[in-house]
Amino acid sequence: MPDLYPLARRILFSFDAETAHHLTLWGMKMAHSAGFLSGLTGGKKSIDSNPLEVMGLTFPNRVGLAAGLDKKGEAVSALGDLGFGHVEIGTVTPRPQPGNEKPRLFRLKEYEAIINRMGFNNPGVDGLLENVSRSRKEFDGVLGINVGKNFDTPNEDFLSDYLDCFEAVYGAADYVTANLSSPNTKGLRDLQSADTCRELIQKLQEKRDELKPMHGDKSVPIVIKIAPDLSDGAIKGLAEVFSETKIDGVITTNTTIERAAVSGHPQAEEAGGLSGAPLTDHSTEVLALLRREMDDQVPIIGSGGVMAAADAQAKFDAGAALVQVYTGLVYRGPELVREIAGLG
Fold first, then answer.
1. What is the pLDDT of residues 163-173, one digit of tens each?
2. Would you give the end-to-end CA distance of the chain in angstroms?
3. Which residues are part of the catalytic machinery?
């Protein structure tokens, strides 16, 4: 099947980045509803199944979609048609919020990169769950739900937001990711300290113990997503916490606030998180360090700069059980998903 995405990308890139984002999701949902998205993209039906067990869940293959593309949970089955073994939606907060002012999404095409400062724009947890009830019906992969705190919730009260979201999504999620690492909510990354992270994990685990009997003894894995901008010492400190608490999984990494790799680009100094090719090597280095320092029973999901199958393989070689893509999908399209899924 010919790769039609280069043509689609030329059309989409003629629009500003956020408009293109919404057009893409709309088009995917329409094509899925009409029943031809999988055939058009060469998606899941053309990918050999390579299932594996991670976090007690069966993943159809090793490649998933990172949180941020489908913040509203409105296109889960459509995204599954691209061949993803898992789809992570969100970040969702307890209450709806509009996010930061526009423009807030920028392409750095020469670097195959994106800067975003979206700011957790989402419909709130109730709105997301309403969408998921409709959009997941034909998705047979693993669904992750990424949760965070509202921008106006003080850090000293952050636990209530994460616990409220966790309880709300428990029945719908296959796993839940606590996002402590977005640079686009003021003060959020301060929650990545070892002590704060330990407290959050323990409280989530206690809440899970309460919820299990209410959901047929379903035990939802808890995952933490960390930033690439932590010092080696901070990563080692978190590795100790993750090992001690027996967290179910860790995602490395979120976007970066560093700009050295794109210095000189007209938009390099736009505030927000940088993703894509400039993050590839460093995110893998963070992954490798965490893998060396952490209990080997805790799985890692490698994210950040997965732009080609070789980037995914480097993360697998560094110790990742799974990988996630986002910016790579923007620049490469569904062909990237098929290439990584084919790695086995």
1. 999 999 999 99
2. 21
3. 182
